[in-house]
Amino acid sequence: MLAEQRRHQIMLELQRTGQARTTQLAENFGVSEVTIRSDLEILDAKKLLIKTHGGAIALPASSPAAAFEERMNRNFDAKRRIAQMAARQIIDNQSIVFDSGSTLLQVAMQMPPVSNVVVATTAMNIAQHLMYRPGLDVHMIGGRVFPSTVSTIVSDSDKAVGGLVAHQAFLSAHAIDHAFDVVDVSEDIARTKRNLVRMARRVILVADSSKWDIGASSKAFSLSRVDLIITDTGMPHGIRSRLDKLGVEVRYV
Amino acid sequence: MLAEQRRHQIMLELQRTGQARTTQLAENFGVSEVTIRSDLEILDAKKLLIKTHGGAIALPASSPAAAFEERMNRNFDAKRRIAQMAARQIIDNQSIVFDSGSTLLQVAMQMPPVSNVVVATTAMNIAQHLMYRPGLDVHMIGGRVFPSTVSTIVSDSDKAVGGLVAHQAFLSAHAIDHAFDVVDVSEDIARTKRNLVRMARRVILVADSSKWDIGASSKAFSLSRVDLIITDTGMPHGIRSRLDKLGVEVRYV
DNA sequence: TCAATATTTCGATTCCTTTCGTTTTGATCT
DNA sequence: AGATCAAAACGAAAGGAATCGAAATATTGA
After folding, report:
1. Domains, chain B, ranges and CATH?
2. Which position has the higher pLDDT, A237 or A83?
């Protein structure tokens, strides 16, 4: 086995388990520990791993906070344009519902100055971004806190905000499956989205093109229930032509 | 497991919960406590955490807002001690209500590891601190968001958490007036505190000595409704003797 | 042969544990 | 409030096992 190939195998092992021991590697590859150490030294110099006493560990994994940043940065440009368009839908004297998610946080941050607007949201980060703004009344929708999205899970929307009927609801999607249903990873989240949809007369969905044609376990609501879809043009061609026939207003940014 | 990886795991644990105990870590990793202590010493030297008696705590948040808040925070030491005592009241298999406020955020941060505990709170910062902790179910109590305390104002507690009856409620006070009523700056906040008090069978009030004998516009509830008061000894002498005659358990830290 | 690669050897270093005497902490009792 | 006591946590030291780096040596392939 070539030295280069052996190093590649070491990297694979590290990606699988997050760590590798010098002793183990030497035994597996049938070479001396000194050889393995020199491999690790070379890979460390290339910043591909971190050499430690006894072996090596993978590069520092991203923290929860960093993971959210990462999600935020994925498709960032499309999300920003989508958010800009969405934020323009908000006008004075309206009540609005915000779902959680990185795209909707963008929408909140790009919201123009308004007056006499009521915002209800399940997302703590959105609430915290909006609460200082003048002309805005922010309502946090209560429920069990879901860590990965920093938002609440709503069991009963009617109780949650005292029967508020909003003019518009802004929803995001974890994924949109082949049957044009907005789907998510858990029934809890799906139910929350259903409740949010029911709270508003007009439903706006923001979804960048990476969300299309992906399955997930729990259906939240059908695209036909949506009044306006804001997305970008990067989706597969077949999807787009079907979407245009659906009878729902779609804006591409 | 490699030593370096173990240290990284310690850092992750600290980022999640804000603290870590030597005993717990030694048990989790299957190494001696001496080893953990040496790990903590090394990480402390790198300024990645602060080693303390019994374990380590995360570095204080360095955001401008947090720093400002901390600098403005008078009586920080007393609050920390009060919080420590309060956190010890929390045991497994309980449901707990948290009011908002800097002292109660401290309580949340100093909460020991627990299992099967349900926490309901109006404070977003408390919810965000607790949501990653294992053994905890965090419920955000919905309502209008009040910027200065980063918390919600509850109009109707029964609706807010589906009629949850908690074992204990931890309340803070903006001020306590001459008639031994907990008072606050607005009727909205006072009503919220009243609602939180009604939600629990046992009410614990945390209040450092600077809160005593100050008036405010809106009465929240009377001290006689409280089951346990945790405070420090810096209050005027006359207050203290009256307090001891009130028939409410008081602990001084 | 030359250069890259791998191995062996060996003293130095790191890691981890056990032991032991000291300090801190929290609870109880005046 | 102050004193007291036991449990928990601590630091320092010592020793053993694993690992390391460096240098000399052996192997491999053009």
Report:
1. 3-57 (1.10.10), 64-252 (3.40.50.1360)
2. A83
